[in-house]
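User: quick one - fold this with pyridoxal-5'-phosphate bound?
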Amino acid sequence: MKLAGRMQRIGIETAFEVLVRARALEAQGRSIIHLEIGEPDFETPAHIREAAKKAIDGGWTHYGPTQGYPELREAIAQHISSTRSIDVKPQNVCVVPGGKPIIYFPILALIEEGDEVIYPNPGFPIYESMIAHAGGTPVPIPLVEDRGFAFDLDVFRSKLSDRTKMVILNSPQNPTGGVISEEDIRAIADLVRDRDLTVLSDEIYSRIYYDTPPFSIASLPGMLEKTIILDGFSKIYAMTGWRMGYGVMPEWLVDPVNKLMVNSNSCTASFTQRAGIAALNGPQDDCEAMVAEFRRRRDQFIAGLNTLPGFRCPMPQGAFYAFPNISGTGIPSRQLADALLQEAGVAALSGTAFGAYGEGYLRFSYANSLDNLMLAVDKIGGWLRDRGQP
Ligand SMILES: Cc1ncc(COP(=O)(O)O)c(C=O)c1O
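Assistant: Sure. Structure tokens for the protein plus pyridoxal-5'-phosphate:
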């Protein structure tokens, strides 16, 4: 049976593929340190789990409204309004199963054949995949290591055209851990404000930062009506498996997103939404403790990576990823990632899993214990020495 042509233009997320390969090695008795997958290694906070159990027993087990329960949308609207200094209402919020549908639905709703979409490269692989799947033209902008993995603004300006229908920003960023400075966000807003395009601002790591809080483009004059904020519960509440995220968007986009939602999912699970209310309205100390632990690991792991021959790792400012430049090893990224998995027992991702401009880099998730992270550094160091690296 021949697949539809659009299936030729859809990508995958390599992290899941590497996880399968790492598990297959473990099944053969090998010991692997998992630094490939982007999810917190913490339990979902107890009060959130309790709220979900209570919701199941309380009968929150049926279909709910497509857009999400009003109480949850109210809590999200308040959270986004106060953290971004903007005024959004529950009717601007669409609750969906994870952050990903807020990439999928707006791109399907807005992008047609010939439309150009600007996005970061290296970047979350689903951007490029979905732009191409929808028939749009992906316009990657390389991230510049020396600028903290932000865009070169001259390159950005030169890539804007009358066909640019969407600009995707992601800060704090996967895979680099970069945070776009307020100054750069302001410059980007000035370049797009008067254009007929939408900004998809992926802010899923908005609360995982180590120095300056990330700045949302939606808070700048004239931007709220053309910006979709993607955020969710997966990362900050360690709820990746619950599948719950949301988009905050101008009202004109809510109805199309609801239509795509009703055609694909009907609604997000009811009891998880009750847990979402408990997450946003309850104590936040578990989240703060998790970010503090990520910081502790970051500091030591990055210092460790920087002792490795041929590695140079800038200090990530957000998320929980290290993105060392490994060009000094002389080994191509994919080859190095494969060898580290097979021969050193460390699962990491090639920078190229995040786009062509990721060549010369590896991505490590430091959502693992400090002991394992330092053991990974030792194992990689041993492997490099065995190969004759100084
Ligand atoms: C940048 C970015 N956006 C969106 C997502 C999707 O998150 P979710 O698991 O909630 O769908 C991820 C998950 O890894 C991500 O890294």
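One thing worth noting: The pocket of pyridoxal-5'-phosphate is lined by residues 38, 98-100, 124, 170, 174, 202, 204, 232, 234, 240, 245 (CB under 6 Å).
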